[in-house]
Design brief:
By secondary structure, the protein is an all-alpha fold. The chain is about 70% helix and about 0% strand. It has a two-stranded antiparallel ribbon with strand order 1-2.
Length: about 300
């Protein structure tokens, strides 16, 4: 054998950056056995041993244990199989670390106390099904046993908050706030009242859906009035009310009269709850949807204008 291609433990240490003690440990364990011994009894290693040692160093830096490394070197298992398994494990660890980072950022932003931090950590580590259970329980409690608008119930159930694997601190905060909101008894009572009102309307023959177009009309017309600084009691506001009640009359197939205005005002008073808007804003934040507009000022202005102009 060409002695120039053999390395002492000290030479291996210089080439690999490992300590003599570590290389001797690997040698004693049979992971990198010596190629031969010098006449004086010193262990010598060839190029193949050097390459194997470089592989061992890399695998250890990836936190692969020695028994697994031994199986790779003896070809009892393939490097590809080990790499795939460890990549999957690392992916899980990365997800946990990302969640921890988001929780800590949210704790810092909210200046949370230890109790809130513990709750936040628990909530973000739930499975998706467990997180959805919070929302389904809320829907079951507020709409269960009531013949409410089925389109609304379907919208709620199909718009589940899905916290991403790498959430931002704002999404963790939104999830925390959403759980607190859907567990608030006052909010549940208000939503239950809305569901019962929808049941009453359906019993009176209202089989219409969610009226997105009508809501957009209200948002646009009242939005312009708010931007122009028009007060609800003015004649300019009366013109806006006339336009909107005409849209309501067309949508619901009712006469545009005093009864309609009284009915629209009743609907607004039941449905205009800032917490409902907040619910959808939080879901939008968690799901990375476009920001949800706050319609509470719009409906508040419209309700005041209807009170100021009860007749055409």
């Amino acid at each position: 054998m060409d002695d120039e291609m053999l390395f002492t433990i000290g030479a291996l240490a210089e080439r690999t950056g490992l300590t003599v003690k570590t290389i001797r440990f690997y040698s004693d364990k049979g992971i990198i056995p010596p190629t031969c011994h010098s006449p004086a009894g010193y262990r010598l290693y060839d190029i193949d041993a050097l390459a194997r040692l470089e592989l061992v160093r890399t695998l250890r830096e990836l936190e692969i244990d020695l028994p697994t490394i031994r199986r790779i070197l003896t070809r009892e298992t393939s490097l590809a199989e080990v790499a795939a398994a460890h990549a999957a494990a690392l992916e899980a660890q990365i997800r946990v670390l990302r969640l921890r980072r988001a929780v800590l950022q949210a704790v810092a932003n909210r200046e949370s106390n230890p109790q809130e931090m513990n709750l936040m950590h628990k909530l973000v580590n739930l499975t998706q099904a467990e997180r959805h259970r919070y929302i389904h329980d809320f829907i079951d409690d507020t709409f269960g046993g009531v013949d409410a608008n089925p389109a609304m119930v379907e919208l709620l159930r199909s718009s589940m908050p899905d916290l991403p694997e790498d959430p931002a601190a704002s999404q963790v905060q939104a999830w925390m706030e959403l759980v607190q909101l859907v567990q608030d008894n006052d909010f549940r009572t208000a939503v239950r009242r809305m569901a019962e009102y929808q049941e009453k309307q359906r019993a009176d023959g209202d089989s219409t859906g969610l009226h997105h177009d009508l809501t957009e009309t209200v948002r646009c017309e009242v939005g312009r009035a708010l931007a122009a600084g028009i007060a609800p009691h003015t004649s300019e506001a009366a013109a806006v009310v006339n336009t909107l009640t005409a849209s309501y009359a067309e949508t619901f197939g009712r006469p545009d009269d005093t009864d309609l205005r009284r009915w629209v005002l009743e609907r607004l008073e039941v449905a205009n709850d800032a917490r409902v808007t907040r619910y959808w804003q939080l879901v939008a934040t968690i799901n990375s949807w476009p920001p949800m507009a706050d319609l509470e000022p719009v409906f508040t202005w419209f309700a005041r204008a209807l009170r100021s102009h009860p007749t055409k």
